[in-house]
Amino acid sequence: MARTNKTEYGPFGNKTGNQFSIQAPKDNQIAGFQGTSSNVLNSIDVHFAPIPSASAGGQPAGSAASAKKLEAKGGNAGNPWDDGAHDGVKKVCVGQGESGVTYVKFVYEKDSKEVPGNDHGKKTLLAPEEFVLDPNEYITAVEINYDNIFGTESEIITMLKFMTNKRTSPPFGLEGAKSVLLKEDGHKIVGFHGKAGADILHQVGVHVKPISK
């Protein structure tokens, strides 16, 4: 179970064995996780960081304050994931299966440093395809195709295509029955979120920030 400054999520899993909680010290927040795992999660610990001071507008200071989260599109199944908002996107990795997009991973830029996102979905025998952005290139929109494929519990992502300020990526996957373009005029995409099953992608959404003049 996870608690934030606004709400509570979970529980995730079943209550068995020993139970404990980790509380952030005063004026601190949980900023990262560490632990050990095998085929199950064996241990978990956290990193703390000071809570950013409020800006004049009452929002946390820093680059995330100006970010906006656009609703994810696709099927309503799978587990939610969220890479958060960064300064930009440096690389996109997309894996495909017989029915649709099975895997995504994004590499971001934050404070001039490369920040790899987590794996979402499952890799197949086919190596993931990559779309690498040039310096000063940023993603302005993503086209999402999704469909209800026979044998799937919900609609799945069948194709992703990325538009930047310089070009358009090749389509990763096949066109589906439904198509939507995620974008915000005058903004760039700086993060992704969505839902994924064990071996398929169900939803994709984005975080956007105003393009610096």
Q: Mind describing the biggest β-sheet?
A: 5 strands, antiparallel
Number of helices: 0
First-to-last CA distance: 42 Å
Mean of the pLDDT scores?
87
CATH superfamily of the largest domain: Jacalin-like lectin domain
Q: Tell how many strands the DSSP assignment holds.
A: 17
Low-confidence stretches: 54-63
The total number of structural domains is 2
Q: Which secondary-structure class do the elements indicate?
A: mainly beta
Percentage of β-strand residues? over 45%
The CATH topology name of the largest domain reads Vitelline Membrane Outer Layer Protein I, subunit A
Class of the largest domain, according to the CATH hierarchy?
Mainly Beta
**Helix percent band:** under 10%
- Going by CATH, the architecture of the largest domain would be Aligned Prism
**Rg on CA atoms, Å:** 18 Å
Strand/helix succession: EEEEEEEEEEEEEEEEE
* Tertiary shape: globular
Keywords: Lectin
Protein name: Jacalin-type lectin domain-containing protein
GO molecular function: carbohydrate binding
Family: Belongs to the jacalin lectin family.
